[in-house]
Amino acid sequence: MRDQRWWTWHIAASAVILVFLGLHMVIMHLDAVIGIFNPHGGHPIEWANVVERARSGFFMVTYIVLLGAALFHGLYGLRTILFELNPAPALKRGLNAVLVLGGFGLFVLGTWAAWQSFVLATTQAVAHTL
Amino acid sequence: MLEYKGRPNRLGIWGWLGGGRWGAERYLYTLHRLTGLGLLAYLLMHILVTSARALGQQAWQQAMATVAGAIFTLGEYAVFVAFAFHAINGIRLVLIELGIGVGRPIEPVYPYRTSVNVQRPLAVGVMIVAAVLVVLGGLDFFVLK
Amino acid sequence: MTNTPTEVIFRIRRFDPQADGEPHWEEHRLPYTTGMTVLDGLRRIKETASPTLAWRSSCRMGVCGSCGMFINGRPRLACNTQITELNTNLVLVAPLPNFNTVRDLVPDLMPMFDAHTALHPHILREDVGEQYEPTGEFFQSIHEVEQYLQFSYCIKCGCCMAACPTYATDPIYSGPMPLTQAHRYNVDTRDGGFKARKKDLAGERGPWRCHYAGECSRVCPKGVDPAKAIQLMKRELVLDYLHLLKHGCPSKIMGKPAGLKRRDGVSDAPAPTIAGAPRI
User: What are phi and psi of B136, to 5 degrees?
Assistant: First the structure.
């Protein structure tokens, strides 16, 4: 009965993803065409660049926001596709549980990774390995 | 009387794509679903792989080494293409599903000009922008290294 | 006139629930007559070749919505489909998809009508007395009529439901016709039933499973444009969730214009011929 709400959030999440994932794609895959956010040069996934982004509070926060929005958007979309195949009510309850638990689990994992790398990058230990 | 000489009626390759039976928007809907599923599958793996950066440089470089092959690069380009299509078509869908660009209720006079006709320029524009992004991404992935 | 055929080949999907396990195709050949429609062909076949052929039709002019069928891969009205418009002399006629087949070309449309009824497709107002014993007209401007007029042309033929990709897999989804009719009443300013309909529209029976494939609007024989109605309905429901929807009260009864005088030479209205009729 709450599709009205969830769908509105689905759309809101898509707007958030458009901005942040668009930025992520520009950084990762358009850096030869539009080169920004890779101050150490070279490939965006080299350790130096990863540390540079991990150190930044802006990136930590936006990664977590993007993670939450993308997980909600993607898993709600998957739920819509699966529910449109008309599963039995018990299967629907099971799917709801799996998607919610799986989504939360991955969100916790990703948030931990963002926070942990932020902590590591802003302490001396990592600076030595550069 | 009228002569009927037998008009050729083969659909050719077009027959594979539904034979003109469906409109372009139907295919956009199918593609949007497929790219969404592909992106979700990639996202779940991506979270697991990139979380390695929290475990230090060694773990990170190991993770990156496992996804460095040519097949992975091709796969990542496919993800980029899927994202370009899904995002730009998604902009079109958000506008349309909030009632922008579908036209106002009108008196239907045959031949009917439906919301599908009204939003067609938007759909074409969306495809052009997505194609441009795909080309730019292709340059980055395969040419300008 | 080079593509006018002399002979038309009908391939009809037959199914007799008492005799057949599976549907099968049956072929008939008919001479082409000018202006022949698919319905004309079916009637000729029933008269001359196959008296057990069953289908629904009534008005034969595209206003009753009875003869919806799957003709050459698209849901169409049989009475409204000229043979020449199909650009071939091979006509494949099958019953409307996404509905159970009762027999031959007859679909079971009850699920569509049940979904339709569940969304209260009629004016809902609190002043029930006024609706049964009217004292005046409800005020409605031309602009307000335009908001729902297009969607009121629906003849409930079911072609949109047959074309909808979501309805093809999901029987809980209400489908284009019920949702368009719900929207037609939601935006009718005489109606106050938005809250009552919202109970169903907020959930799985609502427009949320429409993803704008646009097929419903492409096949609608009356130009009702259900796709547009559903997107406009989503807009209303989202604005309602964000508490941004302006709820106009159901329109009031028009009072008599004050201070007008009858022109000279214009006589009074005649006395009512029915006892007890209101004098408006």
Answer: -60, -45
Flag whether B90 is in a domain: yes
pLDDT, position A33: 61
Q: Is residue B59 in some structural domain?
A: yes
Closest residue in A to B139 (Cα) is A33
Q: What sign results for the dihedral spanned by CA atoms A17, A23, A25, A27?
A: negative
Q: What is the 3-state secondary structure (H, E, C) of A57-114?
A: HHHHHHHHHHHHHHHHHHHHHHHHHHHCCCCCHHHHHHHHHHHHHHHHHHHHHHHHHH
pLDDT at B10 over 90: no
In the DSSP assignment, the letter for residue C102 is E
What is the structure's pLDDT at B68?
86
Task: Please tell me the predicted confidence (pLDDT) of residue B131.
Answer: 95
- What CATH code is carried by the domain that includes residue B41? 1.20.1300.10
Cis peptide before B8 (omega within 30 of 0): no
User: Domain range holding B49?
Assistant: 22-143
**C218 close to B (CB below 8 A):** yes
Place of tokens 């993607």: A74
Q: What is the mean pLDDT of residues C4-17?
A: 91
List all residues of chain C from 110 to 169 with a beta carbon under 8 Å from chain A. 166, 169
Please indicate whether residue C66 or residue A58 has the higher confidence score (pLDDT): C66
Residue ranges of domains in chain A, CATH in brackets: 3-129 (1.20.1300)
Distance between CA atoms of residues C129 and C9, nearest Å: 58
In a domain, B3, yes or no: no
Per the domain annotation, does B35 fall within a domain?
Answer: yes
- CA pseudo-torsion sign A30, A34, A35, A37: negative
Report yes or no: B95 at the C interface, CB cutoff 8 Å.
no
Total domains in the fold of chain B: 1
Question: pLDDT tens digits for C157-176?
Answer: 999 999 998 998 888 999 99
Residue of B nearest to A119 (CA): B54
Whether A86 and C171 lie within 8 Å, measured CB to CB: yes
State pLDDT tens for residues C220-256.
999 999 999 999 999 999 999 999 888 777 888 887 7
DSSP 8-class letter at A123:
S
> What domains, with CATH codes, occur in chain C?
7-107 (3.10.20.30), 110-241 (1.10.1060.10)
DSSP letter (8 states) at residue B139: I
